[in-house]
């Protein structure tokens, strides 16, 4: 036994042991986040996916890095309260494009991909149903299924993969296909940010970004497609140049994280020991954390946030947050136009979560906050119990301060949208992904049901803006989805339905 250990040690020193001669990771140097209008980043957010009303959602992720591979965490979160409903790891080689689709059956949404890029676990070519374990146990089976049908997607570059390493070799396409050797990929199950030596030996490096993403929502029955680019967040250095973040790769399994303190790796108020409810009562670790929960978008990525995930969540939320959004709407009856606005808040989860074990009518116990996640500009929480509430469906809500709608001829009406049900004049953002349907109380454009409102505006066509209030910023992203029909085209045997997608404009 001693001889074997000695032999292995010598082999490691001279580079004869696979992967053991890998150099140390490149030093992380990222100090800030910025939302990158150029489209490439370390973090991508797809603001909305849906399988409602026969819709199918498709995502594409591109590795524009021509040298390094990428270990990428992909996580689907529900529209109501950002519950994790599916996550996995994707390995991209240089120049690689990975694609996948979300569709629905009687059991809810499911994911499928015919892409050959390595995935862990390997679910390529399989019908992978979304997981309902984190949804509210008290919901009916029908409601649980429905809550897998809408949400948003987080895509995070956890680590780079160095050329010439065994991990790089197995994820690199050869003749159009990587080998994805289980013997190599399984080694990632013993690596986390506190085992850097093993990660270096396998071929991991700090993440350098360069991911771009696109999405589209396709409805074959209605011959309608909507599309857009994923929101890209770039980690930059003090000079504003693209930088390397901290190594944040965790095992893709259900074991408890083998780190000294999981509170150093997430700001999620349902996963930490320092969360408080609306009344200020401590609510520690409401969900038992597993390896697959990490990394999330609050896992410290910047050099200044090591061990302080609340600072990470604050920095990232601030990079995306704005003071209000504006966009166009169209409900022209001549072309049967309809409009939905998607108002998605993909970073709200790190400020407030829903405690399903509590009665939703008891706000103090149901709403759980991480009070350390604050707006760096004001040192005030992005979300706080003083201005949140819970609706009848258990979605956590915030009221906007004002909204103004204009027609196309300069007429305007402030706080002019009558939001139903009820008679509220101001738009209320309930849930993580809010869909505001203009005038149509039915299925409207997207068929949304999880966190949906109907706004009856005074004008048939025009534009509007939503303001959150003085010194208040929310991390809202999304688009206006406009569907219209050419009745003459349908009558003559060709497609007469069209989809238009315009991203929200915003002010900071």
Would you mind describing this structure in some detail?
The chain is built from eight helices and 33 strands. The chain is mainly β. The protein folds into two domains: 291 residues, no CATH class; 187 residues, no CATH class. Strands 1, 2, 4, 5, 8, 10, 11 and 14 form an eight-stranded antiparallel sheet that branches. Strands 9-7-6-3-12-13 form a six-stranded antiparallel sheet. β12 and β13 form a beta hairpin. The longest helix has 13 residues.
**What is the terminal separation in angstroms?**
64 Å
> Would you identify the regions where 5 or more consecutive residues have pLDDT less than 50?
1-21, 419-424
Sum up the overall morphology in one term.
globular
Q: What is the count of distinct domains?
A: 2
* Mean pLDDT figure: 92
Level of helix content? 10-25%
The count of helical stretches stands at 8
Biggest sheet record? 8 strands, antiparallel
Q: Which oligomeric state applies? A: single chain
Percent in strands: 25-35%
- Which structural class do you get from the secondary structure elements? mainly beta
**Compute the gyration radius: what is it?**
23 Å
Extended strand count: 33
